Automatic annotation (TrEMBL):
Keywords: Nucleus. This is Uncharacterized protein. Residues 369-378 have a biased composition (Acidic residues). Its main location: nucleus. GO terms for cellular component: nucleus. One of its GO terms (biological process) is positive regulation of transcription by RNA polymerase II. One of its GO terms (molecular function) is transcription cis-regulatory region binding. It is found in: Nucleus. It comes from Clonostachys byssicola. Residues 284-308, 354-378 are annotated as: Disordered. It holds the Pfam family Fungal_trans_2.
Length: 485
């Protein structure tokens, strides 16, 4: 894969790192791994991966590659060691896949880490080829996921469920970036049942948001299709809107509930922006892209009897039947989750939400009263008002979470969508968005956060002059592939 290796002449100008692999691995488990999970204390990609030091050299080199870049904020002039470790990881994972000596879920972790980091090691404006070809890792990851999906649901192992959740997040985060033709569909029944299983549990990357992440992956595909083809499918729009409006944020954790609410606003804003765009030009039904009849909300999935699907066996899937917070047996959990050593946040203390200083008379940020109006029947002004209200709602939901909370690592995607819909009058909200993106850069060291700020400044300038645009349109016009996950 020549596109994964930087130009040799460029490498020769970069000073080599003097750190050993052991030092890079220690930096990973103690610092850099925080960017890969919602809770540092429940992070299967931190200390638990050390047990695979000899079993999966490709994973170890991939993690060391991220460490080598993360400690220098992925600064282009200091990535020689990052690329060296990355090349070693690719060489090893090829051998591991050829010999098929490892569990596919373990090989998936390497591909997952390499795929995400493809976006972290180059600036969108400076290296579009590298970012564009990051889709190859996504396709390779999906091939491994399909291998696991071929296994009957009752035999899903905990490591497979972790891989499913990781892929689901990865797919959602890339759905706006990669052309739909280059993304494999996720609406098959096998994938739906995997999501159903994830919806019953806490996942270190998704938290409790498997269902909304699944819907948003389809929203991203559709929005990118409309952007590329100017063709709409109004029935699919209505279906996606109804799915988003029906999802209720978790009440188990205040921070994760606020995060889910912001992501729901993110999805609705993008759907409503298409409505707004469609007031000008709507494609004929014959030209609209088709969508599978298998697409359905999680609530419509066929019921599965516990005696048929969730019997206790060697794979430890009985915890899925009960759920992590319903009659949960911690002793059983410690046995079933020993592969990744993560447990649910059973004794988690919810965040006490501060009052809304800027909109003290507004409804609770976790209510869905803002989303009950059918946007197909309201006026243009009311539609714009609805979008703006959702944007403000999302910004305030996200910024109520302290900057020190690790869940802010997942704030970038909804923050960009909501921020792009703020008007000149929303001075305070624009300041909050800017401040949070800078906090994100400080937390995860990813230059994409600064690129997102540049993108927002351009969108705001156009809007302040009375123009109509979106962050996706501006990003596409620049040829960028901005992935904030």
């Amino acid at each position: 894969m020549p596109w994964l290796v930087p130009n040799i002449r460029s490498l020769e100008r970069i000073a080599p790192s003097q750190q050993t692999g052991g030092e890079l691995l220690r930096y990973w488990v103690e610092s850099a791994s925080y960017i890969m999970a919602l809770d540092p204390e429940n992070n299967p990609l931190s200390f638990p991966v050390l047990k695979y030091y000899n079993q999966s050299p490709s994973l170890i080199h991939a993690l060391q590659s991220i460490s080598a870049g993360h400690q220098y904020f992925f600064e282009p002039g200091k990535l020689r060691r990052c690329f060296e470790e990355r090349l070693l990881s690719i060489q090893h994972v090829r051998k591991e896949l050829d010999t098929q000596t490892n569990d596919p879920s373990l090989a998936f972790l390497t591909v997952f880490v390499l795929g995400l980091s493809s976006y972290w090691i180059a600036l969108p404006a400076d290296d579009p080829v590298l970012l564009h070809h990051a889709q190859a890792h996504l396709q390779g990851g999906r091939a491994l996921i399909d291998t696991m999906l071929a296994i009957p649901v009752p035999q899903f192992s905990p490591q497979m469920l972790f891989a499913f959740g990781a892929y689901l997040y990865w797919d959602m985060a890339c759905s706006f970036v990669i052309a739909p033709a280059d993304l494999k569909a996720i609406d098959g029944s096998d994938f739906s049942f995997a999501v159903e299983a994830l919806a019953r549990m806490y996942h270190p990357i998704l938290g409790y948001s498997a269902e909304i992440t699944y819907v948003l992956a389809k929203v991203g595909r559709y929005c990118r299709t409309v952007e590329d083809t100017e063709q709409r499918d109004t029935s699919l729009e209505e279906e996606l809107e109804n799915q988003l409006r029906s999802i209720k944020p978790t009440q188990i954790s205040a921070e994760l509930g606020l995060l889910e609410e912001a992501y729901r606003c993110h999805g609705l804003i993008n759907i409503y922006a298409i409505y707004r765009r469609g007031r000008v030009s709507t494609a004929s039904p014959e030209a609209a892209p088709s969508h599978s009849t298998e697409e359905q909300s999680m609530a419509d999935l066929p019921a599965r009897e516990p005696s048929d699907s969730w019997e206790l066996d060697e794979t430890g899937l009985a915890f899925l039947e009960k759920g992590f917070y319903n009659a949960f047996d911690e002793d059983m959990a410690k046995q079933t989750l020993k592969w990744l050593d993560y447990l649910p946040l059973g004794d988690y203390q919810p965040l006490m939400l501060p009052s809304d200083e800027h909109h003290s008379s507004s409804e609770s940020l976790l209510s869905d009263g803002d989303c009950d109006t059918s946007t197909e029947t309201i006026s243009d002004d009311d539609l714009q008002s609805t979008i703006r209200k959702l944007a403000i709602q999302a910004v305030h939901a996200l910024t109520q979470v302290p900057e020190s909370h690790p869940s802010i690592n997942l704030h970038g995607i909804p923050l960009l969508t909501a921020g792009s819909e703020l008007l000149a009058a929303d001075v305070e909200e624009r300041k909050l968005v800017t401040k949070r993106f800078r906090a994100l850069y400080s937390f995860n060291h990813m230059t994409a956060n600064l690129t997102a700020l540049d993108l927002l400044q351009e969108v705001w300038a156009i809007r302040d002059l009375g123009g109509a645009t979106s962050w996706l349109k501006v990003m596409r016009s620049k040829g960028w592939h901005l992935m904030l996950g």
